[in-house]
Amino acid sequence: ATPDELRFVFIDPKRVELSVYKGIPHMLMDEVIYDSNKAIRALTWLNDEVYRRMDYLSAAGFKNINENNEYCKKSGMKLMPRIVVIVDEFADLMSTGKKLVEAKINGIARLARAAGIYLVIATQRPSVDVISGTIKNNLPSRIAFKVADQASSKTILDAGGAEKLLGRGDMLYLQNGAAGITRIQGAYVSNEETVRIVNYIKENNECYYESNIKDAINAEDEAEKAKESSGGSNKDGEGNYISKDLLDVLQLAIDLREKNKSISTSAIQSMLQMGYPKASRMFAMLDKYGFLETDPRDPKKHYVNISREDLEKLISENSQSKDD
Predict the structure, then answer these.
(1) What is the pLDDT of residues 199-216, one digit of tens each?
(2) Per-residue pLDDT tens for 163-187?
(3) Rg of the chain (C-alpha set)
(4) Residues 176, 142: contact at Cβ < 8 Å?
(5) Is the pLDDT higher at 308 or at 12?
């Protein structure tokens, strides 16, 4: 595939596996993402990109990216490139913010195939903390190489067998929609061959990058630095200014708590008429600022831990901060 047809986003918290591909013209941005916080912001951008693409395809009357690109080829228009996101090591992202990462992966995976965005996620730690139920539901096609025990095999494939593999590329493949698991042999590719292929691709393709994703990541960094330098006065514990949207979410959370109902991303989305990415971001902000507490009887349920009086103080301090 040419760079017009296919683009990659490489996320490599380990900083060793994907650096060899740096500089290939198929990359969406001109760097491999090593920082976990930047990786989460990149997933946020991709989440939004899924919805931008779906809105465009819907308005243009296309069911999916295939129909759009067939029309573009006939009309001589620029293709909508497929984007493949490769993450190695996923456990590092999950340790940064499990709920936030799950929300991003969920948002991308639900509509990704029609929008032409795909996820390839790898981990050397196949535990339920990393490969959670939410992740498995959204990534139905899976590969297991040799693992230490049957529990690890069941975590990946929902079945044993991977603990009996021979290693050296011997693998079990679970394909979405397939009747069972297939045992296949992966081919060995040396580092020298990988370098030769990468160099060939660089020499025979024009190199240009999209600045949108990098601008989005760097804009977040600049905003955070500005907040730190301004030293806000909203009493959130970190000196960050609380937006009106977040105050609305706090109001909703207090209303739900008084009705003995928990706050969730879906509740924010439906009751405040927000898109899923924004609702997920608001829920993550509640957690970040320490406004949430877990129900001791059900860890999946969350309630806000401030009163209406505390909220009124925040609104007052926000107004004062804005005036200043």
Answers:
(1) 999 998 887 787 777 777
(2) 999 989 999 999 988 888 999 999 9
(3) 22
(4) no
(5) 12
Query: CA torsion sign, 305 to 311 to 313 to 319?
Result: positive
115 and 41 Cβ atoms separated by less than 8 Å: no
**List of long-range contacts for 31-39, beta carbons under 8 Å, 24+ apart:** 31/214, 33/9, 33/217, 36/92, 36/93, 36/95, 36/96, 37/96, 38/217, 38/221, 39/11, 39/13, 39/87, 39/93, 39/96
pLDDT of residue 249: 86
Where do the H-state alpha helices sit in 187-300?
191-203, 212-230, 244-258, 265-271, 276-288
> What's the CA gap between 111 and 172, in Å, rounded?
26
Per-residue tokens: 256: 């739900």
Q: Is 272 exposed, middle or buried (0-12, 13-18, 19+ CB in 10 A)?
A: middle
Handedness of CA 146, 16, 104, 40 (dihedral sign): positive
Residue pair 29/212 in contact by the 8 Å Cβ criterion: no
Alpha helices in the chain (DSSP H): 36-60, 65-75, 90-96, 98-115, 133-138, 150-157, 191-203, 212-230, 244-258, 265-271, 276-288, 308-323
